[in-house]
Request: fold
Amino acid sequence: MNNLNYGVIGNGKTAALISETGSIDWCCLPDFNSPSFFAKLLDKSIGGSFELLVDDSYKINQRYIKNTNILRTEFTNGTDAFELLDFMPRYKAENGSYYNPPDIIRYFRLLSGKPVFRVKYDPRLDYARYPTKTVVYSKFIKSYTTQGEYDSLYLYTDFNKEDLLNGKPLTLTGDSFMNMSYNQKLLKQTAQRQYIKLQRTKVYWLNWSEQIKSYPTYRDEIVRSALVLKMLSYDKTGAVLAALTTSVPETIGEQRNWDYRFCWIRDASMVIKVISELGHQNMTRRFMNFILDIIPDKNEKIQIMYGINKEKVLTEESLDHLSGYENSKPVRVGNAAYIQKQNDIYGILVDVIYHQFSLFDTSLENSEALWTITRSIVRIVEANWQNPDKGIWEIRTEERHFTFSKVLCWVAIDRAIKIAKIVGMEQYVDLWKPLEKTIKDDIFEHAWNEKVQAFTQSYGSDDLDAATLLMEPYGFIEATHPRYVNTVKATQRNLCAEGLMYRYKNKDDFGFPSSSFTICNFWLINSLHAIGEVQQAQDMFRRILSYSNHVGLFSEDIDFKTKRLLGNFPQAYSHLALIETAMNLSKGTISHDERILESLKYHRTEL
Reply:
């Protein structure tokens, strides 16, 4: 069984996880990184949820309305049937801005008969730290904290509020609604008003999806993953979250539980590369601006991650009153990794700047600032590339000379040289070329293991690491180079088990890894495709796609034996890699006319 069978709804402000039976088990308000209001995901007894309960005669089926982030859950017993449409409003208002309040609308559409269900409405504000009091008023049901910092939540509905709150049977006789809002509403809430929001939100998502560049294969998977990434994009700043959740463990019962509601700089270059290629330049530009805003001009203190509002201090603490996902403790908020030194960050940043110059018009003032940052990073790399670091996997104890970090130091200099040519600063090309060659030669000499016949995890190590597969995509080595071909094959032999990839097998801070890191599977598929193992890559990709949950979503990890999803969810990095892999495996693009006909077909299906 896949225990992360959740659909996700969101609107660029926050999001919620809704189980396949229609229970809201995770939601933070008013923003992605706010305290939770529903956290049954992390504690089934006290976390809080918003559930629909039907008797055993009902069958339940859940899916998205195609090409949207509106979740449809259908309940039927053969005679009585209804569908629950869950969404967070998002559409363009008359003044040109986006309407995306911290609201969850649950729209009930009667299909047949007189369905009966009960509601368990049990919000637990502020991570359920203190008691939450819920009271019925004439216009709404209000929940609020009675200790700690004050917070509140409002539920508007045309159902009988007392019956709803007390879990009494509710009979659906026509279309009805529940609107749960962080804010008190100024206008009267009616089913008609929610219906209009539903239709406007639907049109918004259909239009957004229609702008995605079409590929002849894997169209549905690409669009669904792109829609997930759009939900993980924070409107206020352009930041893209790593995931919506905290402390969903990489392995049940272990302590590999982290808060992923932050923005990792490492994800930046992949977001920009993939989303810009799909055709959504505005999302790319906004994220690019977020990254550029947090880079200090001439300061070495560059962090690997930031808060979605550009916060620099992400202090980590444990919420010991919560039992954790399937009793996997601790539950963490904040992330201590923000203080780590990871030398790959410099290559990521200069790659981002190179994309800025390549993809977008850049003003003279902006160009000069970016050029200053580029030169500063080159100086930092020159002074630091020979030092050990924590590496891409954020090892919390020992520092090593990680191969991936060295390769990304090379990327920093390589992209800086390319930028110098773009901005007409040719004199820097000759100045930086020797450093580029020195780093490259050093990697070829010390990262290559003659005995293993592969580039290994770190200098002098026999251990293999899936991150070395990225040497070719970053342009460090040709796909046809014998050392890269051998590395791909050795990495597959050593790290592949039960059809899934380890990121590495050697012991780390918490023992030996015991689940597959989802993105590593896509890295291997891309590498196999690059070295000419096309059929093997296609077969593996189709197999990995079958491990998604019931609505096509992926988390950070997959269990080797059961194939259940583990780790924080849904994971941006996993869906970015899925899109990139689908694009690589897809042969060319279809014509504009075919795309229009394809779009009209989708629209007819759902209208």
About this structure: The chain has 15 helices and 28 strands. Residues 6-210 form a domain with the Beta-galactosidase; Chain A, domain 5 fold (CATH 2.70.98.10). Residues 588-607 have pLDDT under 50 and may be disordered.
